Amino acid sequence: MSHEIKPFDCQYSPQFAELLTNLNISLVISTYQAGKLITLSPQDTDKLVQLPRTFDNVMGLAVKDDTLAAATKYNVEILKNDTRLAPLYPNKPNTYDHIYIPQATYHTGPLALHDMAFLNDKLVAVNTMFSTLAYIDDTQSFTPFWQPPFITELEPEDRCHLNGLAIENNEIKYLTALGNSNEKNGWRENKINGGILMEYPSGKIILDGLSMPHSPRIYNGKLYVLNSAQGELIEVDVKNHSYEVLLKLDGFLRGMDRFGDYLFIASSKLRHNNETFKNLPISETSFSGIIAIYLPTKTVIGKFEYKMSVDEIYDVKVLPDTLRPNILTTEGVGKTAISFSDNYFWAKLKENDEQQPQGSANQQNQTSTKKPEDSFAIQLFKNISQEKLVTDFEPLLFPDAIDNLKTGSFFRLNTLIYLIENNPVGALVFEVKEDRTAAIHSLFILPKFRRFGLATQLVKQLEPLLASNNITYTEVVYDEHLPQKTAIEKLMRKISSVNLLTKD
Prior knowledge:
Blueprint: E1 10-12, H1 14-23, E2 25-31, E3 36-42, E4 48-54, E5 61-64, E6 67-71, E7 75-81, E8 98-107, E9 113-119, E10 122-127, E11 132-136, E12 143-146, E13 162-168, E14 171-177, E15 195-199, E16 205-210, E17 213-219, E18 222-227, E19 232-237, E20 242-248, E21 252-259, E22 262-268, E23 289-294, E24 299-306, E25 315-320, E26 325-327, E27 337-340, E28 343-348, E29 376-381, H2 386-393, H3 399-407, E30 413-420, E31 423-432, E32 438-445, H4 454-468, E33 474-476, H5 483-495
Parallel strand pairs: 8-26, 32-33
Antiparallel strand pairs: 1-24, 2-3, 2-25, 3-4, 5-6, 6-7, 7-8, 9-10, 10-11, 11-12, 13-14, 14-15, 15-16, 17-18, 18-19, 19-20, 21-22, 22-23, 23-24, 27-28, 28-29, 29-30, 30-31, 31-32
């Protein structure tokens, strides 16, 4: 039976997943043609996992620390990674190690933003529509700060198809464009052989006659450029205005990032209905995917290829120390993530319900008895004092644990609160000790909510929190004679891998 091709079907060499695993990285790619931001990550050394998210006409990407910026058709979306929220992701708990949450949207209008980068706490973008470099922030659509010397006015005319940005030591060094025209869409007249590499800020042309160049990058003091329409990775000798072809590849190359000794280069299919491309050497071999290259030997060591859905890729970025990332949009569950100071939790909102989880334990008498799935949230309070814990949450504490919590000596107390219809109905109190072990001091659900498995959900939320902090040993602190002890231990053993120790 033949394999039925499905959306985003792909194939890849056996070494690709193993390489990402060994490097402890994932990749994020942008495909404006499919309107997706896609993460590629290793499930194990043999299998890759991809996660497509919808972003309208997404092109340029920028990554710095825990921040990801993505240029879409009309906006730039800023997403922040929160490793605390990742293991608690409601749809798939204990699955992700990083999760990028929508944090800000800059409305730019249709600028066709290409390469982007964070420089000196500012977001810099190649504004292709206006043939300029620009800052992107919340002050205006864009703030231009440089243009090629041959561009005389800033008009929305895509005069030279400015696209690529090379940075070294946090400074812009070189740029690429598909031509040096000062007329509207003038670069199109000689698009295959009119490409240029410019020096910044002088605008001096280092190379011309390039074949639709993209993605200039400086690695270890060497300048690399993708001579896209020829499928070439080239190394530029700036002093002598020349270049060497390091590799000839099979696709239209656009998008490149490096990790250690490895390059990851994105490839796109040629538009075969375009007469301009039919005589190119890659006209019959172009494909959409990612090529992994070992730079010291200039050797292709892995290849990922789409069979369906994705034809054109613009950018690829490495996400370091990340083996299973998730990226959320402002729709659906993405809008329920909340983090502030030391607190973070997910809310589940009813359709068209924009209320935010709030309330205190003293509101519990006003709570309805609707099922938890109607509207719930779990909130974490970190490093809470004993006095505040008992004062604010006494109705949610296990009765026999209250005296101990009032008088005992603890290193670091934390509380997970379960809210329904924005009102607290249950709590799990745990201590993180100096020796990096943990102790559960109270697990309590209001009586009329004990039919819905809320205690199970609280313990399920606790385990990834502890695991993310390298805590694998947990004791349950209850007296031996308490009837609740057996039930709690049974619950813990059923859904958790933690070790159990009871207090005599």
